[in-house]
Amino acid sequence: MGIRFSVLSSGSTGNATIVETEDAKLLVDVGFSAKRMEQLLSERDVNAADIDGILVTHEHSDHIKGLGAFARKYDLPVYANEKTWEELNKQIGKIAEDKVKVMDTGEMKDFGSLKVASFGISHDAAEPVGYSFYHEEEKLSLATDLGYMSGKVKEAIIDSDVLVLESNHDVGMLRMGKYPWNIKRRILSDIGHLSNEAAGDALCELLSGDTKRVYLAHLSRDHNMMDLAKLTVNNILEEQGIRVQEKEVTLMDTFYDRPTMWDTISRK
Questions:
Q1: Residue limits of the Metallo-beta-lactamase domain (predicted)?
Q2: What is the rounded CA–CA span in Å between residue 11 and residue 73?
Q3: How many CB atoms neighbour CB 105 within 10 A?
């Protein structure tokens, strides 16, 4: 089976991703109410009761809105680092002590045949992380809510078979948009969000012979469009002499209102 995943929803209104192998099923973030999470999971024929645990990237509401209610309803363990837990405890209500799991940044944990490693990212949260998933020779990495693409993040996610990478905004649209300047400045900062241009620049260094698909994620509904994000990233790659088709890399869509189709990673 390899690694199978679906980005259930991605954007400023909420985020969640399901990742599974034949003997493990993990949820990354719960950015919606428990009812909406159940609906999203049902669209991919996933029974919430079968989930083995929830991995948390950081404590912002679009990633944890329904975390407490969902974890309590299905009696699920929740994994986050200590600083993130300090913030979660203020927001999500009581989680049973035996379900509170501390996963240090940089730590790797085994969930059956699925190995998961977290890595630190730059964002205005307590101790935000991304995750890489390993199964035999396969690798999937999720990296969103990035202020910038650091060397450590590149090291963590390079050689991924599939990469879910933030492409949050078009800089021109953001600068001309309706947000107050202090919000724009935050988004554009090193602890904000990765632009289309920055995503393209990062991919020039990240694409390897192993990388088959890149999902552009966490798009702003006000300051981006999927077609624009894909065009911008593709143009940057071509300017650097990297032709997406020749590299056999496909740029993939994510959606704020529905899941992506199941994607299976297998080198066999």
A1: 13-218
A2: 25
A3: 18
Distance CA 204, CA 196 (A): 13
Name the residue range of residue 226's domain: 137-258
Q: Give every CB contact of residue 253 below 8 A, 6+ residues apart in sequence.
A: 215, 216, 226, 230, 260
Quote the CA–CA distance of 80 and 58 in Å, as a whole number.
Answer: 8
- Does residue 190 have a pLDDT over 90? yes
Whether this model's pTM surpasses 0.85: yes
**Structural element, H or E, at residue 160:** none
Question: In this predicted model, what pLDDT tens digit does every residue of 106-135 receive, in sequence order?
Answer: 999 999 999 999 999 999 999 999 999 999
Q: Which residues sit opposite 138 in a β-bridge?
A: 135
Is 119 part of a structural domain of the chain?
A: no
Residue-level length of the chain: 268
Could you tell me the two tokens for 190? 């090193």
Assign residue 14 the CATH number of its domain. 3.60.15.10
Q: How confident is the model at residue 246 (pLDDT cuts 50, 70, 90)?
A: low
